[in-house]
Amino acid sequence: MFRYRQIKVILILFVSVVFGYGQNLLPPIYNYSLLEYNGGSKNWDVAANADGELFIANNKGLLFFNGEEWQLYKLPNKTTIRSVAVVEDKVYTGSYEEFGYWKKNQLGTLDYTSLTHLIKGHEFTSEEFWKILPVGNAILFRSFSSIYIYEAGKVEVLNPTEVISDIVLYKGDIIVAGGNQGLSRLKNNKMVPISDQELLRGKTITDMILWEEGLLVGTKLNGCYFFDGEGLQPLKLIITNDLRQHQLNKMLVLSPEKIAFGTIKNGVYLLDLAQNTFKILNKASGLQNNTVLSMARFQDQLWLGLDNGIARARLNSPITYYTDYSGALGMVYDIVEHENRLYLGSNTGVFYFEDNDLKFVNGSLGHVWDLEKVGGDLFCGHNTGTYSINNNGFTKISDVSGGYEIKKVPEQTNTYLQGTYNGLARFRKDPEGKWAVNRLQGIDFPVKQLCFESPNVVWAAHPYKGLHRVHLNNEYSAVSKIENYNDRGAPSEYNIKIYKIKNQIVFYSEGQWFKYDAIRDVIIIFNEFQKFNGKELLLVDKDHFWFVEGDGDKKVISTDLKSDSLLITDLPLRQRLAPDSQKMIRTGDNTLVATLNDGFAKIQPNNLKEQLDSLVLPKPVITLIKDERQLYPPSSTNVVMRYPSSRMITVQVAAPKLMQARYRYKLQGVEMYSAYAENGVIQFQNLPHGTYKLEVATVGMDNEVSEPVVIDFTIARPWFLSNLMIAMYLTLSLVSIAVVRWYNRRKLQRKQRELELKLKKEQEEKLAGLEREKLAREVKAKQNELASTTLNIAKKNEMILELKNLLVLNKEKFSNSQRYRSFIKKLDNSIQDTEDWKRFEVNFKELHEDFFERLLKEYPNLTPKDLKLCAYLKMNLSTKEIAPLMAISIRGVEIHRYRLRKKLEIDTSKNLSNFLITF
Questions:
Q1: To pair with 454 at 20 to 30 A between CA atoms, which of 154, 397, 518, 656?
Q2: What digits encode the pLDDT tens for the residues 321-341?
Q3: How many beta carbons lie within 10 A of that of residue 732, not counting itself?
Q4: Global pTM?
Q5: In sequence order, what are the residues at sequence separation of 6 or more whose Cβ sits closer than 8 angstroms to the Cβ of residue 268?
Q6: How far apart are CA 806 and CA 825, in angstroms?
């Protein structure tokens, strides 16, 4: 449910002296607006159960408040609820022609059960039920015309003749206030008038409550009366006239000596009969509405159902407040007690508080920096100078503007030094009681704070330029020397505060504590206050120090630096302490007063400590457990949340018995968390799956913690980490491993085959290489053999030709011509021996087996003689070598070559031998 949380802290009725109003110190009041509780404006009745949970009869339905969150429950007929009462675990409500009860279901929400169906033989006459009264085992529902008694599953209807304005159980009898006739007893379901009721004749009774062994009867315009069971007498109270004037509506006994009276026109009167005093909570003091329709008390909490809104006040509070609700007072900068008056210096002037009245000091209009008791007089450091305050008079004693702070000079009787806007001023009081003021020479910068180290040495703090150690002459008329410590360990130059603590000069700057080391003449860390870094000093109270956090929660701490300490976390005080201008003073043995940004607070530390010591902090209540998709019963012992809805887990807790509860939680499990929560909402995002234990405890004002409430919850593993998926992952992993192994085996086998093939190929290539080498050798041998054979044939033919030529030349020497011719023929036959060519051809074909075939295929007109020449040319033989082989002359070879070139159609530019070699 979308909520607006805007809690205003309203404390007192403002009385400005200018307008002459009275004022009280009051406990804090918390207002809840319509936007916050999201209901109707009017709140007709209020009830609380034993746990402090609140139920309010509202215009729009039943409001439920668990201490942290408001919820509105509407009736089926959407009518206004006029009354509410809590009986054990049921919440009874009455509305228009309808009554019944509400009860929490397993999820902690309220379910409604109507009882009107139990009414037999009766018809409603536009009735609304204004009060519910438990009597023994019966529940009475009262309208203006009838009383309905619900008991043992049945409803009985009583129809008196008089209009019924109220009923109450008194000493076993049901007392009925009937119209203008006074009181009656309900006997045997009939109204029996009580005697001696003349005092109530013609008066409208609005409420009756048990008090002092009798009944306190309140009327609308005629005050209160006391009924002791026999007779009736008027009750004289100091607020009787106020109750008559402002129309009494409701009454509530707070204690035997204290009663709350709710009115129609002026809020609530808190009457203390023992002290014969009263306090008023109304709109002037911050209550959002003056018409009180209902009241209820739970422990020290007073709940008010208003005509427009809801309010809650804390009773018996050791911290009370004065609030300037009108804005006339402004921010309080200083406070001092003088002649039994409490004086306040603010940005609008000087006020004093006396007998619960706040009054303005005439003539003090303007900004006040300092209030100080000086030599029996009360001084005011003002924006326009310094003034003396006496008998409501405001007398100027110094024209030096801007009196920041004034301090007595050590070892001097009537001499004081003041920090101003432009230096230091000396104040001296003569024997006649007159003050003389002189400005010190030699210093002209503003001094916001000062602190004496010795009679002639004073530390001065510039608002923006840091610390200065100022040396004074003996007459305190001038400055003899100024030392700057910015290069000697000084802290930040901005807004330094100076204190003298146990004869030590101590500084506070930007959350750090320092002190002056006189021996080394430097500024060093102040070890005694290191645990209080980030905390400003409010008051040095004998052996106790009062600190306040400079930022953040603004908690107030009192400590003796040893074992005794007190922590104040009261929300109104923390919200209203004036930043950078906080001050606290002691005004009595058990009273401290602190300045606020709109008034002041009165603190009774002893009472506060007693309350804290006696307070037993309640365990918080789990009100909601949910993830992104599902609500879980708050009473569940072990919640199991599924993924992915567990990505956002919300746990809501409440402590209805406390006002403005704080909580500390600790998460243990796969991840660990520990933190504080102020609004009761604890959220976790993206927690890993696993088992967790969440402990939540309430935190008291002194930081004590209660017994924790424990929630065990488990975040289930996501679907992709379920047992089935894990089994699938395992199966897939095994399959993957098998596939990978199979693949690797196949790959290995393939690699082996490839390697074998590679090795085989390499081997084959090696063998082929060897074979080629062998063939090359054989070819080479064949070539050599062919060349050798060819050369031999050529040499043989050449020799035969030479012989032939010799024979031809010596022909005449032959005697026998026949023999000569025979010899020549043999030589010719030797030259033309076909056996030589056949051997050459065989060897040539072994080297060039298809040469002749290809050549003839390409050039079929070649002759055998042409083929011979081609063979010799392919062997790259020269013309000279070819001539003997073909038994022709060199010229013949050239002619044959020419003819062959023609047949082969080779251009003259190409080499014939190269053509045939590459053919």
A1: 397
A2: 888 877 888 899 999 999 888
A3: 12
A4: 0.74
A5: 260, 261, 262, 280, 281, 282, 287, 292, 295, 302, 304, 313
A6: 14
